Amino acid sequence: MSQFTDQQRLGVSGRVVADCLDAGRPALVGYLPVGYPSVADSLDAVRAIVEGTEGRGVDIVEIGIPYSDPLMDGLVIQHATTRARERGVRTRDAFTAVETVASAGATPMVMTYWNLIEAYGADAFARDLAAAGGAGVITPDLPPDDCPEWFAATDAHGLDRVFLIAPSSRDERIAMTMASCRGWVYASSVMGVTGTRAATSDAAPVIVDRARAIDPSLPVGIGLGVSNADQAAEIGEFADLVIVGSALLKCLDSDGADMAGDLARLRALAADLAGGVERSRR
Length: 282
Hints:
This protein is an alpha/beta fold.
């Protein structure tokens, strides 16, 4: 059994992580934005990373909602989300993607900046996400000590809340942030924006150890920089969730001219990453 036993604290997504840990490996999370190369193509893409090959794909899909002024996103994601916005993607399209992931057999979550939730209405967003089958929301720019309406909305509709901690975070801030989470906490392994990297950050195991020392009751996920199976295996040695984004997105061409080939590459990479995570059994 994993050390995480508080079912209410774990929420939906945290229980998925606990089940993976009980099976001897961390959970694999794949990020893709809705609307790229088109809304229909993005639905095929999220389905592909769940399916993988030979039944090996991601456990949780992090569905990004394109935003005009992203703070964390690197060039690969910025390019994709800009194209998606130019082609008319809407917040509601994310709920369709959530339904697609759920029907494919994985756990769907949404990653979005707060302005989009605020514009939609916090309670309405939480209501519609829950109705679509979403497990929760990752909010990279939302301070957990300044959003009572989001706590009320997620509590009312049973959604997980995932906030971020960083290597620069003080222990007091980490404690407050983790206490505000339900499901798991997203630990940024580097100071900077998202994107694939040749090597994982030396700060990654440090921020995980700090988080666990402060609050051992919540799973810790690591993202920002994982690009291949070896890195996934390395991160999986100490993190409870391994999060991959830009590497998956690079499989998709902006014009969608060869979606069959793109989807094949996505499935193969998802399976390769799953194999890497599997190698990090502990």
